[in-house]
């Protein structure tokens, strides 16, 4: 349920009105393949201020300026009876489901927090009365606590069953507008308009840390990482930064600035020390993965969105492709352009061969793949074979093969020397193939698709091996660890998922980014993952507490045919 960058459309239906992502009335859902309007709800009589989805994905709840709460069935797109959960006398600023999905809590400008039963819409228990406008509500993962906060700068923790007040927390000098529990429910993180973050013991009310300072504007969002090791805080306004804090030491780990457009593509340098990001604003920035410092950029050579970026194997150069129909090669130290821009009809994807000898590009209506000499920039060969637009490219680690994924639902493997099509096409997908990657040993191909599925193929025979289906939206990006033991997938559903390559089982919970994800990349040492999307910011996740040591071990001492991860093409039309 995201409009994102232009998949199809523009989706028309809102006339001279302010569209706040999905926070709008009426609520609209579009078919993400065609852009067709699937459903529209006009039940609210004013702006929808808050929205939440149940953990099982079956229901969502909306809160509006019209002072009402409404429940919806995600599958049928029908509002659940009773049609209106009325009781508040002010705008609903925040709604959340309890972990079991059986109750919804709502916080309002009328200073009250109410609980509602999803099954029948009846109000549950007593009203939790505050002494100021409620701006944020949160529910602990164990279902024991409800936290509320707002204009009076006080955070209140309530017993989720009895609705009795347990403890009040004071410390912020401005209204508290964001709350988040740690995964073990033992800590509560708060963000305020005073630009600070605080961490609290949920049982005793003791302030464990804070104020954590660094932001220059109000904290719009605070989140704990699924492993509990990091805390992320984000600001809006002119700052548009995300700060990562160590949840134990409370030290700032990294601060990531922002593009003025969404982050469309990411790539780690081979030494894991840098990450390059390409944006919808047409710029490229190089960041330090340790300090979060902007090392170079923003680079302003492209005149349209940057769709894909990729480092050369030695880390000395990187390439970028853009909606301006050019591919450009850059010196990673000086950010100077190397040689002329390579012209294409329209470039959707770029890849550099691991041996550094060739560039591969694709795009436009011509359905062709072009191989360029990386030294002379001369065109070496063009291939045709797909019946639809070619969206994604991936070299094998020995540079001998190139895989291409297309809107026609097929994956084709090519011999990079002869141009011969190797077994295939590899069919199985029924929708566009958005991302394709070889395993480091070259034996398997992993492909992500528009329908949210991930498919495995034998890279030699083309035989399908397995299909994974956990994402609920398009899989835009696949990245494989250097040792080949795990991989990550980034999706339009706002999640990054980690997978064991051998068992093909998901590792740990999904990493929630809560906005459309275009690109993911695993650092060569396997310790971090970067993700970027519509929120215009780059996130770096620590994997040491998520990936088992047996899987993470020997990431840098993988077999000789392993290569550092390349950002998979992230094509978004």
UniProtKB/TrEMBL annotation:
- UniProt signal peptide: none
The UniProt keyword set, sorted, is: Repeat, WD repeat
Which SUPFAM superfamilies does the protein's record reference?
WD40 repeat-like (SSF50978)
Any single Pfam family the record assigns to this protein: WD40
Q: Which SMART domains does the annotation name?
A: WD40
**Repeat (WD) residue spans along the chain:** 41-82, 85-126, 127-168, 169-210, 256-297, 299-340, 383-424, 426-467, 468-509, 510-543
Which PROSITE patterns would you find in this protein's record?
A: WD_REPEATS_1, WD_REPEATS_2, WD_REPEATS_REGION
Question: Might you report a single GO cellular component term?
Answer: nucleus
Q: Which InterPro entries match?
A: WD40/YVTN_repeat-like_dom_sf (IPR015943), WD40_PAC1 (IPR020472), WD40_repeat_CS (IPR019775), WD40_repeat_dom_sf (IPR036322), WD40_rpt (IPR001680)
Which named protein is this? Answer: WD40 repeat-like protein
């Amino acid at each position: 349920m995201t409009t994102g960058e232009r998949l199809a459309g523009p989706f028309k239906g809102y006339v001279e009105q302010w569209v706040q992502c999905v926070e709008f009335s009426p609520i609209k859902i579009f078919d993400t393949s065609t852009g067709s309007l699937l459903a529209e709800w006009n039940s609210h009589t004013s702006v929808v201020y808050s929205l939440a989805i149940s953990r099982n994905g079956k229901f969502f709840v909306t809160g509006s300026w019209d002072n009402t709460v409404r429940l919806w069935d995600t599958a049928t797109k029908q509002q659940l009876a009773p049609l209106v959960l009325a009781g508040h006398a002010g705008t609903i600023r925040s709604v959340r489901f309890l972990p079991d999905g059986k109750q919804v809590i709502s916080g309002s400008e009328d200073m009250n927090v109410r609980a509602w039963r999803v099954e029948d819409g009846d109000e549950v228990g007593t009203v939790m009365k505050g002494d100021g406008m409620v701006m944020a509500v949160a529910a602990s993962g164990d279902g024991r606590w409800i936290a509320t906060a707002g204009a009076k700068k006080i955070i209140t923790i309530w017993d989720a069953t009895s609705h009795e007040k347990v403890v009040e927390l004071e410390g912020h000098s401005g209204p508290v507008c964001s709350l988040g529990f740690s995964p073990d429910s033992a800590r509560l993180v708060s963000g305020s308009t005073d630009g600070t973050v605080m961490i609290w013991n949920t049982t005793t009310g003791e302030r464990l840390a804070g104020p954590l300072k660094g932001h220059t504007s109000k904290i719009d969002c605070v989140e704990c990482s699924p492993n509990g090791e990091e805390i992320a805080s984000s600001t809006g306004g002119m700052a548009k930064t995300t700060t990562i804090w160590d949840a134990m030491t409370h030290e700032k780990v990294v601060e990531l600035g922002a593009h003025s457009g969404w982050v469309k593509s990411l790539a780690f340098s081979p030494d894991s020390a840098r990450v390059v990001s390409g944006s919808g604003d047409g710029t490229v920035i190089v960041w330090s993965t340790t300090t979060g410092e902007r090392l170079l950029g923003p680079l302003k050579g492209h005149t349209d969105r940057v769709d894909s970026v990729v480092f050369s194997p030695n880390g000395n150069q990187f390439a970028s492709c853009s909606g301006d129909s050019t591919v450009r090669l850059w010196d990673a130290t000086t950010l100077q352009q190397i040689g002329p821009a390579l012209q294409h009809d329209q470039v959707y994807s770029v890849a550099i061969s691991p041996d550094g000898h060739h560039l591969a590009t694709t795009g436009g209506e011509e359905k062709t793949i072009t191989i360029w000499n990386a030294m002379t920039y001369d065109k070496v060969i063009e291939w045709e074979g797909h019946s639809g637009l070619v969206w994604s490219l991936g070299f094998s680690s020995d540079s001998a093969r190139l895989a291409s994924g297309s809107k026609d639902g097929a994956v084709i493997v090519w011999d990079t020397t002869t141009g011969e099509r190797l077994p295939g096409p590899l069919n199985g997908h029924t929708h566009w193939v958005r991302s394709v990657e070889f395993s480091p040993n070259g034996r398997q191909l992993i492909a992500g698709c528009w329908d949210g599925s991930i498919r495995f193929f034998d890279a030699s025979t083309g035989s399908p091996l397995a299909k994974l289906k956990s994402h609920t939206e398009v899989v835009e990006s696949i990245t494989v660890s250097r040792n080949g033991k795990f991989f990550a997938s980034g999706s339009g559903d706002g999640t990054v998922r980690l997978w064991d390559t051998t068992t093909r089982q998901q590792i740990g919970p999904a990493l929630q980014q809560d906005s459309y994800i275009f690109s993911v990349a695993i650092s060569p040492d396997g310790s971090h993952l970067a993700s970027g999307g519509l929120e215009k910011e780059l996130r770096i996740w620590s994997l040491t507490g998520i990936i088992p040591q047996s899987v993470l071990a020997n990431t840098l001492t993988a077999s000789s045919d392993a290569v550092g991860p390349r950002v998979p093409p992230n094509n978004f039309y």
